[in-house]
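Quick one, T. Sequence first:
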Amino acid sequence: MELSKRLKAVAELVTPGMRLADVGTDHGYIPIYLTEAGVIPSAIAMDINKGPLERAKEHIREHGLEGKIQTRLSDGLKNLQMNEADCMIAAGMGGGLVIRILSEERDTAGSLKELILQPQSEIDSVRKYLTEEGYRIVAEDMVYEDGKYYPMMKAVPCMAGAGEIPYSEEELEFGRVLLQQAHPVLGQFLEREMEIQNRILSALESQESVRAKKRMEEISYRIEWIRGILNTYY
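Structure tokens:
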């Protein structure tokens, strides 16, 4: 099973030996990949829609893995039983949906040993939710594929009383671990973000409205903020 760069990076965050629950599995590629590689012993491929689940079931059958990967119709974690899995993957969905899935089934989510999350949006909100709900982000990665940047993370429950140290604004937006590692793909993303903001600023310079001037102030602040981050970590 060949995975895209994004899905392979997500799969590589899974700790070997974990029983997997893949939420929003779509074609079932990650469970198949990890099971064939011997990284995980078993998986539950879950999706809210019957169509993707049927495609996943077909791919699982083609790879002869019916005995190790089961499919299950489920809205998030609703149909996952306690202690059925050790690791959950939620990749390729909006950050708001990731938070809803975790918050609606707090007990089930809290029983898992690790969460592998790759939100497509609102990633700062996801990081904030995790740190406030007693998780620690222990690993992060970021890949560039087909013109898009994809950050992802592994979070584990903290021991009682051992909460995460509060995140700064830049750590919430860009990732504490990615910044500490001076991750090269994050560096490219920050450089591109500065270029984009500078182009917007140049386009606004000819405008005299109060709204345009306020926007210019906001963009100038963000440019200096990102420049400071690059100077600190790179």
